[in-house]
Amino acid sequence: MNQPNCGRAILYSSQRVSVMLYRMFVTLLALTVLWCGLLPEVALAQTTAPPAQRVEPPSKTPTSIQPYLDRTIKDLTEFRLDNGLKFIVLERHQAPVVSFVTYADVGGVDEPDGQTGVAHFLEHLAFKGTTRIGTKDYKAEKPLLDRLEQLDAQIRTAKANGKKDEVERLEAEFKQVEAQAAKLVKQNEMGQIVEQAGGVGLNATTSTEATRYFYSFPANKLELWMSLESERFLEPVLSREFYKEKQVILEERRMRVENSPIGLTIEKFIDAAYKVHPYRRPVIGYDQDIRNLTPKNVQDFFNNYYVPSNLAIAIVGDVNPNEVKRLAQIYFGRFESKSKAVQELPTEPPQTQTREVTVELPSQPWYLEGYHRPALTHPDNAVYEIIGDLLSNGRTSRLYKSLVEKQRLALSAQGFSGFPGDKYPNMMLFYALTAPGHTVDEVAAALRTEIDKLKTEPVTDAELQRVKTQARAQLLRSLDSNMGMAQQLLEYEVKTGSWRNLFKQLDEIAAVTAADVQRVAKASFTAENRTIGKLLSKQG
């Protein structure tokens, strides 16, 4: 899945690796705007922008993709190490390149109360190196890092007790020790090693339910990747530049939420839509929680969730699966077998009445409307995807033709499932940027009209066939690149229990009927199940 390059900024989105969302954020300008800083879901830490490495599927007629899928399945090998770490290997020998994705089944929903943002913080620190990478002398660096943590705790205590003189003395020492530690850091050494070896796209994302680390190498660098990636999670130094990175993250939160009208509105919208499920919390974390995080918090989180049984790795490209397995045993077999921490997430109760949030800020007016829907694994998932396509897939979609093209009430109008994640029951979210001279209430009425039509008027066979064809084509397009295939395989492996379900969704989409669309629309698009968000323009 290729993503817009927004540097090492925090990028908020309702990312999910699904056909619908893939289409939306790579093809529509409106969602790109939201992706690069407005939807508070995914935190993306980038070092370099991954160039597309396309591996085209064989040319087939639109009605015959099964040979391609059969060959993909034939060329795929999967195995699990004794410690529980799962590998999925897909051979693609068209070009001498390989893409790697390490998928940690942990994200914002798994964070302890009071420690929101710790999953994303950990992802940032995973680029800081290990006991051998990123340091000039770890034996000299380690006591300095320990002293910084002690001083930080002492400063907090002194502040709480109102001891200004002591705070000043401790802060002065903190700055001195921090400067000493900084002299021992080799900045971005891991990135330099990757780049010098011909690697590209060293990158990571944190979402509500997963953390993904990925990049690509020339095919002859398989063992280098094994060495780097295994060491990265075997001996990480998560306290290196911890306090410096904390300030970076706080600034990113200010830029993407506090100082972003739509970012602030969406955070309030999610908080209204969810009452108990941790989907309600922003992945970047709340300001005060970020400030209070310590290296021990991050280390404990790592120890609990970055265990072999909670990790999965996909390797796609010009590789020999037997060689992959041999090297995996050598490098990743070193990981101690441990069980991950298990916490029972609260179940969100059914919504019983419309909820609404209104924010007034100097901004263009936006309108948001969301409806709760079941998780990715629900039998009606394909129906929700089709509904999303009908309403908002490109310029032929109903929302665009009605709100933007015909009535000219909005500059953009979109919708998608899987907000803010899709592993658990989530939302179908619709949003529109109001056109000059019109109000959010006008947009709301027009949007509601299009939604209600799905409940009262059966979709025509021609329109249904069109969106099915689009969905099918877009799924295949998302699998063209090695990286896209690797990410998709892992999403379905972890979230649904098998990567094979990635291909089964074609049959599920093809099986959707007009009656299914009407049935699901009637059940989901009710006033009781509706959450509304309004960003109104406040005149200075």
How would you characterize this protein structure?
With about 550 residues, the chain is α+β, with helices and mostly antiparallel strands. It contains 20 helices and 12 strands. A 7-stranded mixed β-sheet has the order 1-5-6-4-7-3-2, with helices on both faces. The protein is globular. The two termini are about 40 Å apart.
Sequence stretches where pLDDT stays below 50 over 5 or more residues = 1-63
Number of strands: 12
Count of DSSP-assigned helices: 20
Major sheet: order of its strands?
Answer: 1-5-6-4-7-3-2
Give a short account of the largest sheet: 7 strands, mixed
* Fraction of residues in helix: 40-55%
Tell the overall outline: globular
Q: Summarize this, please?
A:
The protein has helices at residues 19-27, 29-35, 66-74, 118-125, 138-160, 164-182, 189-196, 222-234, 242-258, 261-273, 287-292, 295-305, 321-331, 381-392, 398-406, 440-456, 461-478, 482-496, 501-510, 514-524, and strands at 43-46, 76-80, 86-91, 97-104, 200-206, 211-218, 311-317, 355-361, 366-373, 410-419, 426-434, 530-537. It is of the alpha+beta class and 540 residues long. A hairpin with a 6-residue loop joins strand 10 and strand 11 (426-434).
